[in-house]
Description:
By secondary structure, the protein is α+β, with helices and mostly antiparallel strands. Helices cover about 55% and strands about 10% of the residues. Helix 1 runs parallel beside helix 3, helix 1 (about 15-25) runs antiparallel to helix 6 (about 160-170) and helix 7 crosses helix 8 (about 185-195). The longest helix has 24 residues, at about 125-150. It starts with a strand and ends in a 6-residue tail after the last helix. The model has no long low-confidence stretch (mean pLDDT about 95). InterPro entries: Glutathione-S-Trfase_C_sf (IPR036282), Glutathione_S-Trfase_N (IPR004045), Thioredoxin-like_sf (IPR036249).
Amino acid sequence: MSTYELIGSRGCGSAIIEMALDLAAIPYTVTDLPYLKPGPGRDRLLRLNATGQVPTLVLPGGEVMTESAAMVLHISDVAPGAGLVPPSDSTDRQRFWHLLMRIVGAVYPTFTYADEPAKWTTPGDPAELLRTRVHTRRAELWQEIDRLAGAPHALGRRFSALDLYISVMIRWRPGPAWFKENCPALYAIAEQAAAQPDVGKVLARHFDPPLE
Length: 212
């Protein structure tokens, strides 16, 4: 199997795809770059991905993939034995789709708007109001997902790519301490995922200190 190239940044969603590639035993290289910093790295990233976002995945034939969920589904197609996505005849399949789309379609965009609210509104109080409301909405979404989650994995007894998303995203705002208090099921899922060597190795590379 030829080598994939994963373009990413430490602490970003590219960690999810790095884990997935490891679990699938797919050969790959990592190109780490500060994806928002002007320079040759960002120039190349923009040529490959017009949004300038990471992760960006370059397939062995030169095709470029964007959007982490699409990458996860592709990796599962290449290596279905990795267990990233429940098989089509599994009763867990529908719950997987529901939770994956909730995470990538509802939670993920909150970072786009809350990280730089001035890009989406006028300066001053309106920007801060947007940030506050988006943070509140994100917390509501996580608590909804927490109620839907199983144990010890997001799908109950079945490990999946959902566990990778959770293990990374609880390290983002509002942070592990908030999740431990307000979303204990998700916090426990992240701990369980981090205990897997391939997952723990990537988390250690991307985040310091580890989950506490």
